[in-house]
Amino acid sequence: MDKSVLISNFEKRGWIPVGPEDDWNVYWSSVLTVRNIFSVETGYRLSDNQIINHYPNHYELTRKDLMVRNIKRYRREMERENSPLSEKDENGKYVHLDFIPVTFILPADYNMFVEEFRKNPSSTWIMKPCGKSQGVGIFLINKLSQLKR
């Protein structure tokens, strides 16, 4: 991202740069700096009026395998708490938490994937490698033989 564009937009809003010890609303820095300053170990917590341009552990959202794990964990927590969000329909599908398709993390979930694949043999599956971005390495399969184990 072009730094001059950011600065120009900040100035248009009347925002001014301040030192790290001053009261601030937006902290703009590199991932490494955010990780060091706002880590759990430092004990620093943002105030309600403060935002940063990188989330600690942001990769938990940007890596699809980790995002799916977190969503599944959230679903389990909602079920344990008997939250209305964990409601399922007569087919066992989530009513409110149905925003991700059936997803498996391979190779760990391989057997479950094969079971689901065989239930719907004419379906097409999207395979997305972990740790890749911008569509690199994505491919489709409609036969188990197309999947490298």
TrEMBL record:
BP-aspect Gene Ontology terms: microtubule cytoskeleton organization
Cellular compartments annotated: Cytoplasm, Cytoskeleton, Cilium basal body
Record bears the keyword Transport: no
Keyword DNA-binding found: no
Keywords assigned by UniProt, alphabetized: ATP-binding, Cell projection, Cilium, Cytoplasm, Cytoskeleton, Ligase, Microtubule, Nucleotide-binding
InterPro entries, per the entry: TTL/TTLL_fam (IPR004344)
One CC-aspect GO term: ciliary basal body
Pfam families linked to this entry: TTL
GO molecular-function terms, A-Z: ATP binding; tubulin binding; tubulin-glutamic acid ligase activity
Principal localisation: cytoplasm
Assigned protein family: Belongs to the tubulin polyglutamylase family.
Protein name, as recorded: Putative tubulin polyglutamylase TTLL1
Taxonomic source organism: Stegodyphus mimosarum
